[in-house]
Amino acid sequence: MKAKTLVFVALLVVLSMVLAACQPAAPAAEQPSAEEPMEEPMEEPSAEEPMEEPATEEPMEEPAMFEPMSLAAPDCEYGGLIKEIAALDENTVQFSMCVPDPAFPSKAAFTAFSIQPSEWIETAMASGEILEKPIGTGPYYVDSWNRGDSIVFKRFEDYWGDQALTDTLVFRWTTEGAARLLELQSGTVDGIDNPSPDDFDVIVEDDNLELYEREALNIFYFAMTNTFEPFNNLQVRQAIAMGIDRQRIVDNFYPAGSEVASHFTPCSIPNGCVGEDWYDFDLQAAKDLLAEAGYPDGFDTTIYYRDVFRSYLPEPSLVATDLQAQLSDLGINATIEVMESGAFIEESSAGRLDGFYLLGWGADYPHITNFLDYHFTGTNPQFGDPHPEIYEKLTAAAQIADPADAESLYVEANNAIKELVPMVPIAHGGSAAAYRADVENAHSSPLGNEYMAVMDPGGRDTFVWMQNAEPISMYCNDETDGESLRACEQVVESLLSYEVGATAVQPGLATSCEPNDDLTVWTCNLREGVKFHDGSMLDANDVVMSWVVAWDAANPLHVGNTGAFEYFTYLWGDLLNAE
């Protein structure tokens, strides 16, 4: 038994040895070779070798460099007064003139040369949006315009100057003076323009109201267009000048403070009334001259007017009827035609009215060029063919800074106006604005540009103003009517401005506009930090663009409302690139 056991054990030993021999050998530990040294452990950074900084974000792109805009005429032969308008840097604009222009500051303060953002002009001029939504720098911005009813303005909180005293400003309108007064008496409006002459005493006697009279810086005239017969006959025009009883019109239809016009320009403006006074009324002499001209029995014609109350014409329908009667005394049979305001202005300005028409002018800036140069320049077709005997003297006089030195030229110009009779100057009309008695800082402006931002309507948060008519548009660089201009003046601003309620020129968007020695270059330094209503910042290119789109007739943005840009033409001469 023991022997068998030993044999069995021996067999197990042999079997285990065989199995062990059949197993693969265990791999030996891998040793580094000479060609592949072991990886060195990471070293601690030393003072001489700082750790690499983490990657930073790419820097933001720097704003584009200011690229100044400019436009220059190739020469001054094109007929305008401006040679070049150029941005010198972001805050400096330079105007180079073809001739000396001492009236530049007075003109540059006018709303017709207000400033809007260049980007907005490019966008809104093409779409027409600029006509109803100007983007200015003024104390109010346009919130809404309900055509035929009202315009609502809101206070601009980022205004660069003193904040408007009311949150909301509302403009309303009606042509009837009695209706305006009734609204004021009932308290539905805070101020009205041009109360009727018969209502002056009513307002003065009412303790709840205040009347603020204006200086009569205006002219009402009875106009003719000399490209139509018989107004192309000088004797006919002179006969009409003698045959109109102007004193009768002033006595019957104008308020206190009005006067018969001895000259076209009010006498309070330097050189306005130098030269001969206008013709005295002489009905028989007028009839004789009319007969000598070939019209012993008179002629048939039309009297055109718009039914809009103006400081220079407070009762248009009554005055038209009286003039119709006076013409009848001369044998002239005139029918009366009332026109829509915008169409009337467009047709009369273009010299397309065949007959008489009633029109006038209120001062936009306190200088004789505003009256004479606008109406009698060589480029104005309003009265028909212009008279070089007038406009050549005016062109020369406008270049002289000292009124005394220019007087002799204005004598010649005024005398030529009397002799050639492009129209009949009738009256300088007194006018006023009226307010509720609790309105603080209420005022009237001799320029008709009442500034609503300074008025406090008894602590109420809305100031409501009622004027004679609805604005035609609110792109006032291409408007001439007072209702449009007054609305614009609450929203847009010019390089310079006029003192509130007065005529003195003061800084506006420019802190100064300084001339060179001979008044042919005016350099304007812009106020810094001025923000437009759209949040953009004022710079010199905005000024250049605002002026250039009016000056350059070939500019694709030379559109506006009518495209005439009348103020630019009449105050700065011919347009650049005009056909």
The low-confidence parts are 1-51
Count the helices. How many? 16
Global morphology: globular
Estimated radius of gyration: 39 Å
Helix content: 25-40%
Average pLDDT, rounded to a whole number, is 90
According to CATH, what is the topology of the domain at 218-428? Dipeptide-binding Protein, domain 3
CATH architecture descriptor of the domain at 218-428 = Roll
Structural class: alpha+beta
For the sheet with most strands, the description reads: 7 strands, mixed
Mind telling me the CATH class of the domain at 218-428?
Alpha Beta
How many β strands by DSSP?
Answer: 22
Distance between the ends: 142 Å
Share in β-strands: 15-25%
The largest beta-sheet arranges its strands as: 4-5-6-18-7-15-8
CATH homology superfamily of the domain at 218-428: Dipeptide-binding Protein, Domain 3
Summarize the structure in words.
The chain is an alpha+beta fold. It has a domain at 218-428: Dipeptide-binding Protein, domain 3. It contains 16 helices and 22 strands. It has helices at residues 2-22, 104-108, 118-127, 177-186, 200-204, 234-243, 246-253, 283-292, 316-329, 341-349, 368-376, 388-397, 403-420, 482-488, 540-551, 566-572, and strands spanning 70-72, 82-89, 92-97, 140-146, 150-155, 168-173, 191-193, 209-214, 218-223, 259-260, 300-306, 333-339, 356-362, 423-428, 431-436, 439-440, 456-457, 462-467, 496-498, 505-507, 510-515, 521-526. The strands form five sheets. The chain has a seven-stranded mixed beta sheet. The protein is globular and about 85 Å long.
